[in-house]
Amino acid sequence: MPSSVSAPDRVNDFVVKFANVNGTGSASANSLIMKTIFRMGVPVTGKNYFPSNIQGLPTWYEIRVTRDGHAARSSRVDIMVAMNAETYQRDVREVVSGGYLIYDSTWPRSTLLQRGDINVLGVPLAQLVNENFDGVRNRILLKNIAYAGVIAALLDLDLTVIDALLRESYGKKPKLLDSNSRALKLGYEHAKRHLSCPLPLHVKHLDKTRGYIMIDGNTAAGLGCVYAGATVGAWYPITPSTSLMDAFKGFCERYRVDADTGERNFAVIQAEDELAAIGMVLGAAWNGARAFTPTSGPGISLMNEFIGLAYYAEVPAVIFDVQRVGPSTGMPTRTQQADILLCAYASHGDTRHVLLFPANAEECFYMAVKAFDLAERLQTPVFVLSDLDIGMNDWMCRELKWDDAYQPDRGKVLSEQELASLDKFYRYVDRDEDAITYRTLPGTSSKGAYFTRGSGHNQYGGYTEDSTEYQFVLDRLKRKFVTAARYVPEPEILGGGDGKLGIVSVGSCDGAVREAIEVLARQKIAVDYMRIKAFPFTQQVETWLASHTTIFVVEQNRDAQLRALLTLETQVEKSKLHSILSYSGFPMSCDPIVDRIRASLAEEPRLSAVPAKGPR
Amino acid sequence: MPSSVSAPDRVNDFVVKFANVNGTGSASANSLIMKTIFRMGVPVTGKNYFPSNIQGLPTWYEIRVTRDGHAARSSRVDIMVAMNAETYQRDVREVVSGGYLIYDSTWPRSTLLQRGDINVLGVPLAQLVNENFDGVRNRILLKNIAYAGVIAALLDLDLTVIDALLRESYGKKPKLLDSNSRALKLGYEHAKRHLSCPLPLHVKHLDKTRGYIMIDGNTAAGLGCVYAGATVGAWYPITPSTSLMDAFKGFCERYRVDADTGERNFAVIQAEDELAAIGMVLGAAWNGARAFTPTSGPGISLMNEFIGLAYYAEVPAVIFDVQRVGPSTGMPTRTQQADILLCAYASHGDTRHVLLFPANAEECFYMAVKAFDLAERLQTPVFVLSDLDIGMNDWMCRELKWDDAYQPDRGKVLSEQELASLDKFYRYVDRDEDAITYRTLPGTSSKGAYFTRGSGHNQYGGYTEDSTEYQFVLDRLKRKFVTAARYVPEPEILGGGDGKLGIVSVGSCDGAVREAIEVLARQKIAVDYMRIKAFPFTQQVETWLASHTTIFVVEQNRDAQLRALLTLETQVEKSKLHSILSYSGFPMSCDPIVDRIRASLAEEPRLSAVPAKGPR
Amino acid sequence: MSFINKPKVAHPSLPKNALGLTRRQYEGSMSTLCAGCGHDSITAAIIEACWELDMRPEQLVKLSGIGCSSKTTAYFVSGSHGFNAVHGRMPSIASGANAANRELTYIGISGDGDSLSIGMGQLVHAIRRNVSMLYLIENNGVYGLTKGQFSASADIGSQAKRGEVNRSPPIDPVLLALSLGATFVARSFSGDKAQLVPLIKAGLRHNGFALIDVLSPCVTFNDHEGSTKSYTFTREHYHAAMEADFVAPQQSISVDYPLGESTEVQLHDGSRVILRKLDANYDPTDRGAAYAYIEGKLKHNEYVTGLIHINESSSTEFHTVNRTSQTPLNRVPFERLTPGSAALEKLMARYR
Amino acid sequence: MSFINKPKVAHPSLPKNALGLTRRQYEGSMSTLCAGCGHDSITAAIIEACWELDMRPEQLVKLSGIGCSSKTTAYFVSGSHGFNAVHGRMPSIASGANAANRELTYIGISGDGDSLSIGMGQLVHAIRRNVSMLYLIENNGVYGLTKGQFSASADIGSQAKRGEVNRSPPIDPVLLALSLGATFVARSFSGDKAQLVPLIKAGLRHNGFALIDVLSPCVTFNDHEGSTKSYTFTREHYHAAMEADFVAPQQSISVDYPLGESTEVQLHDGSRVILRKLDANYDPTDRGAAYAYIEGKLKHNEYVTGLIHINESSSTEFHTVNRTSQTPLNRVPFERLTPGSAALEKLMARYR
Lengths: 616, 616, 352, 352
Ligand SMILES: Cc1ncc(C[n+]2csc(CCOP(=O)(O)OP(=O)(O)O)c2C)c(N)n1
Ligand SMILES: Cc1ncc(C[n+]2csc(CCOP(=O)(O)OP(=O)(O)O)c2C)c(N)n1
Ligand code: SF4
Ligand code: SF4
Ligand SMILES: [Mg+2]
Ligand SMILES: [Mg+2]
Hints:
The complex is a heterotetramer, with two copies of chain A and two copies of chain C.
Chain A: E1 13-21, H1 26-39, E2 44-49, E3 58-66, E4 77-82, H2 88-94, E5 95-104, E6 119-123, H3 125-132, H4 136-155, H5 159-170, H6 174-194, E7 212-216, H7 217-228, E8 232-235, H8 242-255, E9 267-270, H9 274-286, E10 291-295, H10 297-313, E11 317-323, H11 340-345, E12 354-356, H12 361-378, E13 381-387, H13 388-392, E14 394-398, H14 416-421, E15 451-453, H15 467-487, E16 492-494, E17 501-506, H16 510-522, E18 528-532, E19 534-535, H17 539-547, E20 550-555, H18 561-569, E21 577-581, H19 591-602
Parallel strand pairs in A: 1-4, 4-5, 5-6, 8-9, 8-10, 10-11, 11-13, 12-13, 17-18, 17-20, 20-21
Antiparallel strand pairs in A: 1-3, 2-3, 7-14, 12-19, 16-18
Chain C: H1 38-52, E1 60-64, H2 68-71, E2 81-84, H3 90-100, E3 105-111, H4 112-116, H5 120-129, E4 133-139, E5 142-143, E6 149-150, H6 173-179, E7 184-189, H7 193-205, E8 209-215, H8 231-236, E9 238-240, E10 242-247, E11 262-266, E12 272-277, H9 287-299, E13 303-310, H10 318-322, H11 334-337, H12 340-348
Parallel strand pairs in C: 1-2, 1-3, 3-4, 4-8, 7-8, 9-13
Antiparallel strand pairs in C: 5-6, 7-13, 10-12, 11-12
Helix pairs in contact in C: 1-7, 3-5, 6-9
The structure holds thiamine diphosphate (TPP) (2 copies), iron/sulfur cluster (2 copies) and magnesium ion (2 copies).
């Protein structure tokens, strides 16, 4: 028996990975374990690596127990629960030396003894379940709960917590509750009897999750849309954005249906495609409703023409791009940040758009609200660039709070009275010299009537082919983008460095970057950190970039799109910007950041070792 | 009578502008004059400024008689033929002091005497025509020919040349020929009798157009597609690209129809929209035909999703983007260069595309051919970025030549025999280490069968969700773009400067830039010039940029898109790049370039006087 | 405006409607279409219909795509908001606008290119969603604005101005709409104002998606010999099966119709449509029968016009299906939209 | 493959066809669809049809969009080229491919979402253009791959797994195709291989666009009580009006059909389709009648299956209209495509 991972330092600090087959109901078992650890007061992250398929292909779930509350995934696997024969080989390979492998010993496995450096624990799961339950499907489902029981014993999880969770899920279905509890006990007791429990790697009660919740970004964003007062949601289903609209719809059915009349204060329209979805959003927003559409890369590509219309005709719109791996259909169930440039400059002609970059589920909630305020204030499309990792995985974050004093910023919309006080209304005249003009809603009064068009128009809203009139409007639009920089969120800036060496990053890289900074700090390398929250870039961004001499840009794409945007849209000299890229499709871990920075500090040249062509 | 523009120095060097109403057949009269001057051996340019409308709105035609053979438009108007009552006021205003105004004196105009500093010549055109012809429509048409006659007299045009041209157009319709000739004489003789002909500004025979032709870029490009052996053209009509497909179809009907059987060696498909058009191109190219689609900005926006598929699945495609004024519908009948960034990075995910930039009609022909060679060699979409000015106006250029030795580069396509010699075929394996892999055509042999997909795939063409396999292909695609730089045309470089001060420009700015350089040279300011012909940028581009210290980037858009692309895709420090932008929708003249460069040399600061935010 | 002096849509007298507005007050900016373009006549009919309906200008919302036809929303009721969208995508804009405010009246103007080529998908789904609006196709068989290419409604054998002959089967918006279960389907001719005006009025009042396919000749590119969409050809092959009169709620029926050959359909706002069959064996309330009838006539190049099918009792109208609040969504007070801090506090339990 | 052991499409014996190929040689990679998915049965039928047709694998081109259904092109005839396009845009890829090489046989596999929502415009125009291909819709009333949202073919009253009830009218691809003048329209059921195989064979041989709408239940998201696209519901409401037998050119008819109730249609390659009416008063060659019949049955929730309409004599097939050379465009030698220097020299005169 190989020596196991040395105990003391790893309590509440290790990774359990579950290898399953999708469509077999393993998700509930895995999140049961994750939730139990969370309720035991121990910070945890759960990452789901699933295939673009409905049933029968390999899927993994990775739980990181992290007493220090890291948000990123860790690249090491301490305990592997290998429930999928098909991926067994590579699953075994992934376990760290001294780690543990749990497998179903119902059938003997010759390939088992491949590795002498890990601890292999067999449990006859199928056998246990088959002896106690019947029904093919039923057995498949309960086998999952059974291994959850095994893990509970090995990790010393609190059975009362598990019990409570089971009641919450199956409270209304006593038979299900019973069978699940029994299956859990089966595994638990077998482990207690046959394995040395708990493992050195186990969970101990802490008090570090009070005031926190586990929620996925899409749910938080959908909830944000409800709180922001969005009434029209139009979409076309696409992974990984689908659950955002599901959440919005679910919450609306709970909060937006009149108890007496059954009347609904919302409309969710499943459009025929993304072109129609964005068209509906523009129509609704133009008509005075807060409207949005959730989508992913392919949807953004299809919306290009309409996005240009919204920019030029100045129609508000909120677009959630829950990014997945591109190009094209790419890997729909993997994460990436590769739509940054497309969203920033979407559509033909001279255009540019406002972007928000949430870093976690919590920000998805608040930025969703912010997005509507910005879209209506600036009368332009606003993109919320989330990604699959943020959107579909459960994130531990502070409980969401709402300020009842909040009033939506509906922007410059003239009421009938205000119109009456004007001698004449012109749609695109810059009365306040902030490059934002006044609009009116259909139905207000014929005095406020105007014509919205994507063809050449002058500041009075009239059709034009006159150069001067055309340029006058186009120049104001450019100025409006400068105004926008005054409204968007400032970056999050973390000191600690010498003010010279810094990291710039965005979105879901945040956890990995923060962890990297801690690791480097322990190695006496102090690094500053600026997390971009929005485009256009604010003055603070400029100042920070100017003051730092060596800047690492961390992002999840091949072509260094954030670096490109910084290069084009700030004064920074690109030679100062060094890319650290991850585009594997898996959430980023801190390792590549730590390694690259240490390496480059070791031997300067590396710093500028970047191919001649292309941004990165 | 005000002193007229001093004569000697302006012979064969002046601008005549015609103000007409569209849909009244003035085009033929105007091009008759332009063509006559050209055949008299005098270099000429003709620019058409027409509305996005079919009948009844103002339209202008501008002929620049330029003995020095400038290709750009000149911003001055020496002679205005004011045939449109509606625009009369501003037309009068446009004439340079000492210039001439020709108008229809059938009805007296009170507003006439507004300007004492120009020579006003009245001709009772309507009266003349009405006395000699009948039929409303007929009279409208012939009135145009009548003023052509007047101009012929005033400019001392060669009547035999005009006569020949009339015969060429109406040879088969004797009645039309007769009425046109008579109408021409009417105007000609009236002018001879009542006005002092010729004007000091007139045309004298030269021998500077031998070996040259007058042709528009779309016709040349369409012809190029025929010579390149393109067999499938799919499109959706959109100004200003429509005439490209009209030309292709016309030439195919002439050169591609079997005399005996009537069978056609081509297929032109009018698609239901641009998404379908590019889809058809991909289907045809994937299946081994040379296929293309002409479109403009809105079409490119709609093609975004498919372009990403073509990039990732490596399907050849040739896309002509005849650019017009954006954003959105913009000004469909005005010119701009504002699709550069969109085309370079079209679609979501990490993508980038090969671009060609013709500068005139002649290059449209040769670059069309080049585009197919590149698309098939590199197995990727290739964009030819023309614009309305190049595509729809007549350009004086060298006669087009064809080398019968030319063989199309069909790229790496395996024949049945070659397949037989392999033990196994894999679609995406980099056998030659140039990042370009081998493909097969459907129907060749089942051994060469493979699966084309936009979803994650490995080098063997198999579906994958494995990070390493996915990245392996994505990294090769990035290297393929480096290979591409070895195949694309080198920039055109013009010396003359001190090697420090230079202009970089692209496409239809060329004429204005060259003229500006001449003007500056006369003022003892020597400037180098590099005209970008393609993206990715070649080593020569890098070297030139590196060697120059002050670089002006001249382009026709608001956001300095070429400057942005240079900033991102070369090593140049952006602080060296100073923008000179024109986005009025009219072809560029040399004035803004000359002025800006002189100004900036005068007072350094101006050089960097460019807004903080955004590329330019 | 046009070079050949074209009279601005003119009206002899200037009578006022119930709102005290004259027809002129329902006009828009001056048309820039070709002299004689069918579209201008349709514009005139719309002006007439809105005037007769006593429509408050701000009550109307005008939507269109891109094309000569789509330009016309600028030429009527300048007191209404207008949205000139992108080519072929007007239905989605209309659907979104309608979702946001169910109280306004929506009129969408499109062309055969805008609707049947690039716009096909959105048109089909606006019909399926039964978005309450009048959708009017100004059908001339060509792409006018891009200079006369055949559209998908061009008939087999029809000849283009340049001589080319179309060999692909036409898409008939009427058959299409019927096959999709549209609840209001009509066809008319730009030259027949008497028939067109009541159809427009009924369409504007219909509770659901009302499609009117109006044959509207393009004098510049498709009005020649050999064209099947010319004035001449249309007049000759034009077959009115059904006259529709529109009777406003308060109004009483002036003429009385001979029993049997006239049917009355009540619209949701109380107004009525009186249908007078010109062809005895025709029933506009039976969709299947209507389809068969139209299709039969089309085989012989006959365009059946009039109110071809109406079904006022359908329950598929968008807001009915969605059970949307009667208060337009864009006017529901924010307090009723946001659940507030207490609810959020409560909700958080679910995620602990 | 699936966790529940699902047998790979298996065949008892391994007989060879005229090319000496066994059925196995017409298979593709192993299916990754859910156990029991209707789509897998259709894949099996396609394999059978290609085997029986003695189809040379390299002669077949497989095209699809995105969806569970669209994945299936990877599961049959691995010896053929396949193109998995983007969602809803397969028809344009097929049209382009067909234009480039008229000699190959094209089969497009799509889903109800892929075809009737995002793909509607392209489907309609592929039909209008009459591109020669077999277009097969694997219709399950939901978006399978995105986990069960209603598609546009969902019937009114049909209930989703999560309980939601659809209230919008369904789009029926068969009625749609008929209204657009499609020349080959059929419907079948994934569970009825006997009916499906001959239909696929005839569709592959049809000279023009052949549409087969195949009801193909989604066991995971739409096979429950209350669904109108479940195996049970389909079996119950499934009405075969027309049996079609496919007879290859060389083949002679084995059984002889009682006169009168069977009609024979000759396909352009000499093969024949023998139609046996199960419903006397039905004529599959009369499009209008077919439409009325189908529509009538649909009213009572009855899905008419079989070869609903066929018109082999139509002259609207793409290459016929285009008068394309018999030599596929992708094989016309370059010399015949490029006019050469002399012609250019001559042409220049026009521009002097
Ligand atoms: C995306 C896009 N593609 C193409 C065009 C060019 N275009 C403008 S109008 C039009 C067709 C108009 O035809 P139709 O809808 O029948 O209107 P009509 O002019 O005949 O009234 C086209 C192709 C465009 N504006 N946008
Ligand atoms: C542009 C785009 N939008 C959305 C999606 C997501 N998506 C993939 S398949 C699908 C629907 C599939 O439904 P259907 O065609 O009926 O196939 P099924 O899975 O039911 O067989 C959707 C919406 C996508 N891949 N691309
Ligand atoms: S081109 Fe045709 S459709 Fe357009 S305005 Fe002129 S007549 Fe009307
Ligand atoms: S989800 Fe439905 S359609 Fe998709 S594979 Fe499973 S059963 Fe088939
Ligand atoms: Mg039209
Ligand atoms: Mg489906």
